[in-house]
What we know:
The protein is α/β, with parallel strands linked by helices. It contains twelve helices and eight strands.
Amino acid sequence: xxxxxxxxxxxxxxxxxxxxxxxxxxxxxxxxxxxxxxxxxxxxxxxxxxxxxxxxxxxxxxxxxxxxxxxxxxxxxxxxxxxxxxxxxxxxxxxxxxxxxxxxxxxxxxxxxxxxxxxxxxxxxxxxxxxxxxxxxxxxxxxxxxxxxxxxxxxxxxxxxxxxxxxxxxxxxxxxxxxxxxxxxxxxxxxxxxxxxxxxxxxxxxxxxxxxxxxxxxxxxxxxxxxxxxxxxxxxxxxxxxxxxxxxxxxxxxxxxxxxxxxxxxxxxxxxxxxxxxxxxxxxxxxxxxxxxxxxxxxxxxx
Length: 303
């Protein structure tokens, strides 16, 4: 466990409060009688685009979760994953160059489209057919590129705290202002300043994963540049967002410090028939800050 997470531990009384909050989302760790991502082993599968590390749990229609930049598959709070796995076969995985997942061999520069191609290869290798796809932040960009470049592999999209790739989006914060922060401070910026309890709950949740690990600085830099090029309209797939033909839900926090809320509105207006859901007083991690409401919305949208 990294030192920055160790320092964010909080006392038993606070931990119990987190467990009570998590009970509505499937329990707190080992106390859950349903799916438990903490006991789901990490598998590594060989695909046509390198090896990909993943966890799979639950049963029912497939739901693929795509993480954002600077996040591993351990960035999804266990109660969040377990709640979704109560009705779905949930697959979480590491993006290119993270953990035990291979870096993409081409092109030389990492791109959103290249990561989408590797995600497509994972879907094929696991025979997921046409999963629903939930992408958070950069993961939402990858999800868009996947639906554009591999439409037969996606049944519906849930795009959380992300942006369109047409060149009209508000840019990301300067890389130096993000990379210069400690990991704990980066996590704090995922939530509004008045949501300190949500920050502590999130950190406590992800530290439960055995062997918790992080993205390397070099990989994060490559991911940031790929996302930056996507927003600038320099990734061909991003300019074809109007070609998406699957049901799409766009969700955004109104106090997002990384992806401006206007980007969510622009994205929803660019995907034919997309629905927009805004979370007040919620940041980039609104889907964890207001997990119960978000998961209800996801379940309703997926039918």
